[in-house]
Fold these 2 entries.
Entry 1:
Amino acid sequence: MNYNPYIALLLFFGISLILFLVFRPKKGLFFLFKKTYKLNHKIAIEDILKLLYHNQTNNNSLTANDITNNLNYSNSLIIDSIEKMMDSDLISLEGDTVKLTNSGNEYSLRIIRAHRLWEKYLSEKTGFHHKEWHEIAEKKEHELTVEDTNKLSVLLGNPKFDPHGDPIPTSTGKMALKKGTPLSNLKVGSVGRIILIEDNPEIIYKQILAENIHINSIVRVIENNTTRIVFHSEGEKFVLAPIVAGNITISVLEKKEIDEENITRLVSLKENETATIIGLSKESRGENRRRLLDLGFVKGATIQIDLLNPLGDPKAFLIKGTSIALRKKQASKILIKKD
Amino acid sequence: MSNKNIKNILALAKELRWQIGDDYHDNLTESIYADASKIVEDAVTKDKGKSKFRLDTKIDKIVTSKIWGFPIMLFILGVVLWLTIIGANYPSSLLAELLLDNIHPFLKNLGTSIGFPWWLNGFLFDGVYLAVAWVIAVMLPPMAIFFPLFTLLEDFGYLPRVAFNMDALFKKSGAHGKQALTMSMGFGCNAAGVVATRIIDSPRERLIAIITNNFSLCNGRWPTQILLATIFIGAVVPKTYSSFASLSAVIGIAVLGIFFMFFFSWALSKTVLKGEVSTFNLELPPYRPPVFWKTIYTSLIDRTLIVLWRAILFAAPAGAVIWLISHIYIGTESIASWTVHSLDGFGFLLGLNGVILLAYIVAIPANEIVIPTILMLTVLVTGISGGEGAGVMFELDSVTGTADILRAGGWTLLTAVNVMLFSLLHNPCSTTIYTIYKETNSMKWTLIASILPLVAGFIVCFLVAQIWRILV
């Protein structure tokens, strides 16, 4: 037998390397192949529609050139798709700029509805990390049929907003209105509620998520200049660059509406302090939220620390006569007012 | 009312429901809770100076303290394992003497005297009966000690504190603190450990605990580890240190299992399981004195006997297979020796041999019969004297006798080390596989749980074998 341990090892690592190259997540040959195989005109058309829709709502006009620059597809595919879209009356040309027709508008709303409903679904019914919702929904939106989205909507209780605050169009294309100001435009001292964390561009969105800024929380601006914006929210202090803060939309509150100023997160509770629960943050979702409600973490309950952990986390809290251990992440989504 | 009217009303209701928005359901739930707690506050009077709670707090402060928390935990786990392994020796040898040395020859004689043909006699008593008897003798005593002890700790209320202390470690690999408990339960029996994962109420963490439970070295595998460590590892060091060296080797294998458990928990939570719902909560109930006899009774009935019964159901056909493959011939060779020879090449690559691989295949029903099967097969294929004949599993009372047979079968230190590794890292026994299927109700997870440790075992043994041959 021609056995030699060196050759055996070499073969083993060779095969491992090949398997790694083929099946490596996202960049592996298998996935690249799958992607090019699945890439077709339908996906390109739907992505162009979305791009046009978003720019139209922001009053930007796009030329065919802008479209090729903005989307990560080959030029020929985009030009092909635009021709097809003209043929089926989804878009029209006004001089250089490409405009959505009525049916194009309807179609793009349908895609946006599928995307936002799927994000809502991921946030409520699965355990995917919130950083991944957008990316998964980007793929799924092209696969859902109209009946699928309607079923999904019923399953989720016909939600009005997706998890980061964007309105979900109804099956007839109606959308809840949201009026707000970008955080970067707020004056020092003004108070407001976060109503939307824009998920586009993704780099900025992920940065906001990493800061642990929660939707629906109240913010008070402390400092605002060209280099940074400092604000307080739920007892924590946040510092953001203006470009990042511009992606957070705030609904400014009038003086008389502000009654929730001393709210902090449960993580900040110290030993021997007692507090009253104000409620659960909007960031606590799905099964997690229901569990917490079941265990009695509801408005008005008093809470104190029962036990500290030798490793720091989780801590046990005394609530309604029971000792319940919660991890830091959960405790940061429970809002309290210290007594 | 006309149909049209009803349709309009439904449409209006839908529209209004949409306008009310997402907060409605939450507000409703919260107000119900708030009302309920208000009623409780008004109606129930509480004795605020209750002293009972203070004792609880005192115990809690000690068992979760930075200094004492972990030593207490390790000490208790150590005592439970020690009691199990040492304490099980005596009843095990008694049972073995009764079932294997007395009843077995008696049954064979009985068969001969009522005129059974030799093959029926052998099939029934050397095959089926022997496997079942073996499993009972090796499995019953440790489980009858381990499970009641564990249940007593559980009833007392100490185990949730262990989960509380350990959670930060398990969180790093995406698992739940309660997995510390199911893992410890796995040291007793993996099937029981898998059942115990019911205490984890988060779907993702529960699946992680189920799939990785097999990395806890179970009762059926401790004796294999101890035997091989005594024979081979103890022999490489001076005699005065030999028992210390073999003990460290066994503990080392168990710790390696914990390491693999953490590694695969992490890998699973980052890949195939990342979409499963994940929650966390851990209630720390007040301490209560355990109801001693009731606990013993229920743990014997609920855990020990059920697991034992399942093991017997699976062991019986395994015994039949072991006897049959040694007695059915293809040409001039029995199926057993034919399979052993064809597995030899692959076995050599892994630093094992064909006998060991075949033993692990036919002993899927119970890890307890691996060593007896290996001994029987070794005698069968090498043709040395000893043993009880083809298809009859046996074990020797003297360690040196066992060592001689294994060495005659071509075993080296490398073989022993790799068998110890492979005994830790191979597919779960069929009782556990069946339990995993019943608990998860999914072919997919059962398959992953069965194959994952086997692949890990192949890779680890392969790497160890090649590096060993290069260096030694």
Entry 2:
Amino acid sequence: MATTGVQGRAVEGTGGGGEPFAWSMVLPLVRAGFMGFTGYFAAAWITAMIGHTVIVNPLPATVGYVVGLLAWLAGSGIWDGWIRRAFGGAEAPALTGVERYFRFSSDPKATAVRYVIFNVLAFFFAGLAAMAIRIELLTPDSTKWWLSEVHYNQTFGIHGLMMLLAVAASAIVGGMGYYLLPMMLGARTVIFPRLLGLSWWLLPPAAVAVFMSPLIGGFQTGWWGYPPLAQNSGSGIVFYTLGAATLLTSSLLGGINIIGTIVYMRAKGMSLGRIPMFLWGLFAAGTILIVEAPATFTGTLMDLSDMILGSHFYTGPTGHPLAYDDQFWWLFHPEVYVFVLPAFALWLEILPAAAQRPVFARNWGIAGILGITMIGAMVGVHHYFTAVSDERMPIFMTLTETISIPSGFVFLCALGTLWGGRLRLTSPALLCLMAMMNFLIGGLTGIFNADVPADLQLHNTYWVIGHFHYTILGSVIFSWLAGLYWWFPKVTGRLVNEFWAKFHAWWFFIFFNMTFLPMFILGIEGMNRRIAVYLPYLHPLNEFVSISSFFLGAGFLIPAANLFFSWRSGKKAPQNPWGSKSLEWHSPSPTPYIVFPEGSEVTVVGPNDNYAAGAPEPFVWAPTTAGK
Amino acid sequence: MAVEMARPLMDPAPERAKRGAFFFPMMFMGILSAAWFLARFMWGGTSVPKGVDMGMGIGLTVLMLLSIGPMLGARGKLNRGEDAGAIGNFAILMVVAILMIAGIISTWGAIPIGTGYGGIYDVTSGWIGLYFVGGLLGLLASFMKGKRVPERFRNERWVAHNVVSFWGELVLLWTAFFVVFYLL
Amino acid sequence: MAAGKGTGGVLASGVLCAAVIFGALRWEHTVALPVSSGKVVNGVHHYTVNEFNYYYVPTHFTWHVGEKVQMTVVDRSQSAPPLPHQFSIGRDLATRNNGFLHSQALAVGWKKNFFDGVPITAGGQTGPIPAFSVSLNPGQKFTFSFTVPNKPGKWNYACFLQTGQHFMNGMRGVINVLPAQGA
């Protein structure tokens, strides 16, 4: 790729603070943790004393959570970094060095790196919960020597909620999206950088609360939180509702930034047709969040209000328990498109560069992504099959099955891009292809869920478990790894170890399919989801699934080690190791604090995938004209 | 120093972008309120129950409608660059915000929370009350910034503009709240 | 941020954090949830058992044969609406077959009740109550006294409400009845 003189010029101060890492830089994070726990326990204690009740009750837990969250934020450096200057106090310190990773920072790159770390940790702990689930299912009844039924319920609830809202929701959008969002647009930061910084700091308290919920009685409802079971559960349900609401808020702050940045901060010449595919995926995710999240957000708060304020939205004489289901799925079905659309878009970003071919039918791909966004808004209805009259079922069925049409656009774009291209099968490209394969299975089995006669038989069985693990784990997490490997040189300046990356890709692919393909059979054979104890005739297949899953889970230590050791001592990466034409590779690797040098600006003359022979370079740099 | 040079580079969104993009969070807050308002028809029955604090509802609505005056005044002054005058309008709006929060709290419990209407009324008005707290903090921040560092206030006038826009949304939301919860 | 600056503040906040957590938990266990583990007043051992959804605090007692015991059961159901709970001591589950494996059959009560033939003092009256158990509505409290009968060994207590769902959800505890002290 071309490097103009302007990019090559070193700009003073762009590399960030030269201070090396010192342990004292971690202190704000430690302080935030201390203050968060202090706030929680002090507020819960005082509330319990005033109310003559115990600390584990819902009201003290709620007050404690809110105060603890605010205290955590206060300790995070948000005071120096934002609030103080907003009220006319001293100017915020400029954090350009390593310290910005450990405290509130308005730098989207630091925020994105923190997202990756958080997602990896959440994935690890929620993955341990998955292992615990599979140990339970090794034998038809393991309640005597492993988890009791109540602990089993808490375990899969925590696994589900954390994997969805603390991993899948922010893995690609947070880790890759917030890093690349300004860079791919030719901007140096996002539109509301402090709000984006805040979005990360909302995650850890929510995750800690959900993981700790068994200590105050846990929740038995799984990740749905359906009343009236929620109200009859332990107090842990308040951590479920508050955690879900906090994680949603965090996603929303990101979504607002995504849309605002794409609408207002595109480089000169970046018309809608030239926006990179990945950003279209992010745009779709942000749109879904802004439009759909309110119904579900209000649902969690109303559920909480029933628990602590004595209202009767879902229980009692005026309660409508089914209304919660409607509100819940209003976002949480489209939420899966928040997870998967950035993954789709990621394929259309990585595959063209790997195959050195322009995206096939690019505009149809964009239409597919936006079509899924729009149709996806109505797809939540298929969760109500068992609760509505027969006349509505064909409508729900049609609406739901329509979603496969725009999904097909995306697939055809990816396949057409590969057709006739000379694909360099690097580990990210390999993982993308595997993700496509898995999503194909996940998507095709989804049609049976959308189909009423089949769904009435299959719903609430392991068929559904298999289906959504194919789409979320098989597709989103594969794509997440692909993105991590693809942009690892951009963030760290080093290459991941290609052998171990490919080794793990195959390991992951094989054991993933060995774990989840049999679940379809289990579901057809009648194994219900969410049961700690099953009938003995299902034993052999469950044993096979469990043992495969242990290999699958253990395999994740490979990428963890690979990423860590490559970061510490990997091979130095060139500025653009993949030969990509995309704009983010125009800045040096690792990315300096100021992404693009001062005094220059980019003009976009084409989409970032014009790899066709003889096509012009899509991005032209020129010194900033006066008056700009 | 290089770092001082870096700040404008790292936050390059122009005022138009900052003000325009602020409508996305406002849109979300509006949709969220619409969800609450619609829930009133789900849980609150078909008519307004006897015992609602109609006087307070009308009073607060009139107060909000009257606050359009200072709001538009603040916008005009900001447009003309009369920052000090705009800050005076912010003080008026802060008083209105405090009155609104107190008024909302005083209407709680007029209908017991355990009933359908009472539950949705209390929760919705509480949520709108949180918006008012947010608006109050925004006004206070702009007020203090304008008093203490007029320079920064002028450089970041989009913040004050967004606070005024948010107040406009509060007027709309409260009026809709009144219509949905007191009239329909 | 200069290295070392702020270390003192962070240390102080750490100490404060530890103090608040310690104090809150201590308060919870001594004031809010008094599980007086056998405090002897006038020769009577006082015990309290708290009922939550769906667990007891505490889940373990040790009694000696011949001891006088005063037991207080408190329903502290924390859900909305709060739930009634039961306190029943016995051995050997009485189950109802529901097609699942034996351990998953619905537990509906005990085959042997600990209090069979044991005089119970409650509300100023004394006398044996057949199949004695305590069922409480939310927020209620019930106190009764008895002398530990000569039935040493492991006994269990549990709540069987909602056709044994409370029991399945873990609402159970163990009482270890030891031979008389000094015997």
